Each structure stands twice: as C-alpha cells, then as structure tokens.
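Appendix B. Extra example for self-study. Work through it before the problem class; the solution is given directly after the inputs so you can check yourself.
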Amino acid sequence: MASTPEHFDAIVLGAGGAGLFCALTAGQRGRRVLVIDHAPEPGKKILISGGGRCNFTNLHTAPDRYLSANPHFAKSALSRYTQHEFIAMVDRHGIAWHEKTLGQLFCDGTAKQIVAMLIDECDRGNVTVRLGASMGEVGHADGVFSVAHGNRIARAPSLVIATGGPSIPKLGATGFAYDLARRFGLKVVEPRPALVPLTLPSDEALFRSLSGVATPVVARAGKTRFAEAALFTHRGLSGPAILQVSSYWRHGEAVGIDLIPDAPTDWLIAAKAARPKAGLRSVLGEHLPDRLAEALADQLALNGGLADQRDANLRAAEARLRDWQFRPDGTEGFAKAEVTVGGIATAGLSSQTMEARSVPGLYAIGEAVDVTGWLGGYNFQWAWSSGWAAGQQV
Ligand SMILES: Cc1cc2nc3c(=O)[nH]c(=O)nc-3n(C[C@H](O)[C@H](O)[C@H](O)COP(=O)(O)OP(=O)(O)OC[C@H]3O[C@@H](n4cnc5c(N)ncnc54)[C@H](O)[C@@H]3O)c2cc1C
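Solution. Structure tokens for the complete assembly:
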C-alpha cells in the first residue's frame, strides 16, 4: 500500500551528472529536493567515463562544440555555469586533475572522486537521494507533480527530467525521458546513437584485416572535420576522429578520411625526385603504420618505383589518400554509443531555466535534451551547466 505523500520543492528524476548537479544547486539554495533513480548507485556513467578517470570538462567549452536543432540553445547555460566554475569546485574538493589533450581534463585518481564530490555537495544541500527505486506513475494536477516510486509517493511543484538518453542500456539507460516528455506534450527530436563506431560493409573487408591499426587522420562527415586518431576495427572504424564524425554522419553518406594529414602538398612528386627507385609502399610507410601502408599500396596499385609513375598518377594517388572515401552501412548502435544526438526538443524549453514553456514547473536537463557535445568532456559540462540552470529555478 502506498504511504502518505511526502512533500518537496523539487523532484529530480535521475541521479546522473545532470540530476545530481541540479539537486545540489537547488538544495544549497534551501530548496527541499528529492532525487529518484532506479540504479543501485548514483552516477554510473560518470564512474565508467574517461576510462575510469572521468573527462569531467573541457577547457575549450563553447557553444559551437554542441549539436542541436537550435545551435543557440546551449549558450545561456554554458555561459552562466562555465568549465572554470566546475574546475573550481573540483579544486575545492582537493581532486587532482590533468589536461590530457585538446583541453580535456581528467582526474589523476578515479572517477569515483567526482561522484563522491557530487554526493557531498548534495549532502550540504540536504538533498534526499533515493536509489534502486522503480519509477511508477507520474501525475500532474493543480500545479503539483506526483511521482510514485516503490511504495512511496512524492509531491512537488517542480519536476526535473534528468534520466538521460538511451545510450548503453546495460548501464540502466532508458528512453524514459522521451516518453515522459511526450506525455506532457513536448516534442522529441529523433534520437540517434552518437560518439559511436561506424560499421563498414563486407566489400571493405580489406580494412577489417587491419583491425587494431590506429593512425592520425582528418576525418570528415559533410563539412565537419576532426583531426584526431582513427582506429580500424573488425567491424569498421573507430577512434576519436571517427567517434566525433559519427555524431554528424547520416545513413547513406560517405566519410572522407585524410590518411596523410602531415604530408606536405605534392609529397609523392617530391619523393619521386628524392628517391626515384623507392616504391609507393615504402614511401607510405614513412607516414603510416606498416600494415596500413601495405594495404593502401595494394589498393592504389602503382607498380614499380616512383620514377616509373607519371606525375599525374602520383597526384591522383595523393588526392585519394587525402580524401579516402568510406561508405559506412551503419553504426554499432546505442549499445556502444557514448551519447545520443537528438532528444527533448529545445523549442519547448526555456534556454535560461530549462523549464517547459507549456508546462510550468516541468524541467528537462542533461543528455535527455537535444543538446549533444563533442567527445572530450563537453557532455559532462552540459550536464553540469544545464543542471545548474534548472537548479537556480526550481
Ligand atoms: C562509456 C561512456 C563514457 C563516457 N565518457 C565521457 C567523458 O569522459 N566525458 C564526458 O563529458 N562525457 C562522457 N560520456 C557521456 C556522459 O556520460 C553523458 O553525457 C552524461 O552522463 C549525461 O548525464 P545525464 O545526467 O544527463 O544522464 P545519465 O548520466 O545517463 O543519468 C541518467 C540517470 O537516470 C537514471 N534513469 C534512466 N532511466 C530511468 C528510469 N526509467 N527510472 C529511474 N531512473 C532512470 C539512470 O540510472 C541514470 O542514473 C560517456 C558516456 C559513456 C556511455
């Protein structure tokens, strides 16, 4: 039998980065906050993130590093609670960190420190965090939300949807946020797996034989390019450059890869003058891992030494190496996606407060919303910033 309803100022659904940050912000403003999650522990994605060290923000956080149907939406929250404010909190908790590359900040120790920090900050705000609670009926009447969970009912004038997106279901991720948002009349931008390896069709089998080979590239989907490493896998392509372009890639499109980003223009012509007897394979081997150099030389089929090749053919080979076309047949899906592109449509939300325009008191934050960051700490910064924005308001 359900117990007597408990009353709070705000109920936050989801104890991930966004939900905890919203809760600690509101709690420290003196609001009575309840966080509910079905997982047995808080912040499960934080714990496994960044190889267990949590890439918790990025020094170069800026709105142009986020995908959304409305590219302006993230500006307000990101500018009011910045990466520098989060770094200051991490410093206050004595958590040592380092910049790995490209502005990406990681704990020196473990991601557990970030979860412990968020829970400690929630405690300072007297937030009630209820874990392992299966979510029941969510109601709304006379400006008050009610949430059944386990055998309890909680009521509050503010309800925050912070249950994330459907990527990595085995960690407890669900499409709950979208179902709930739709029930309240909000629209959802089609969710797609993002920051995810791409799969190649069987006629690209040659590259499967390169499984495990990594090389620095510039990868391109449409007009968007990323200069990072690519990794050949037994199913297709992965590595940071590929994960980044996967968020922009659409079915049917090609991904173009510059395999020799550091080679100067007309590098093969120069190599022909300097080492006329050298073959393409050995010249490629100066820029690429051996197995990849061999596979590409086979594909380009320029037999003999460089001196035997016409300049036009060398230029054509270089052009192909600078924009090698792959046609992925799909992605490895939500099971392997670090995030979800799409989600609760920003058109129905205030960018200042994350409150639903048509349902006063209802908020959506974090990955549940149609705002998706690049790889490199941008997604957690969105969780903190959007959580902070809603936490100021509830
Ligand atoms: C392997 C991996 C590594 C990552 N590494 C990084 C990184 O290093 N840096 C970075 O910036 N981003 C990283 N990300 C992305 C980042 O984890 C997410 O963007 C971020 O966790 C989103 O926070 P959130 O609070 O919105 O959602 P989540 O962290 O997903 O939290 C949602 C919470 O809601 C709960 N929930 C879901 N459905 C229900 C339901 N029906 N009932 C009750 N509770 C529910 C879940 O249990 C969860 O606790 C990584 C993601 C993955 C999968």
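Self-check: The chain has 13 helices and 23 strands. If your reasoning did not lead you there, revisit section 3.
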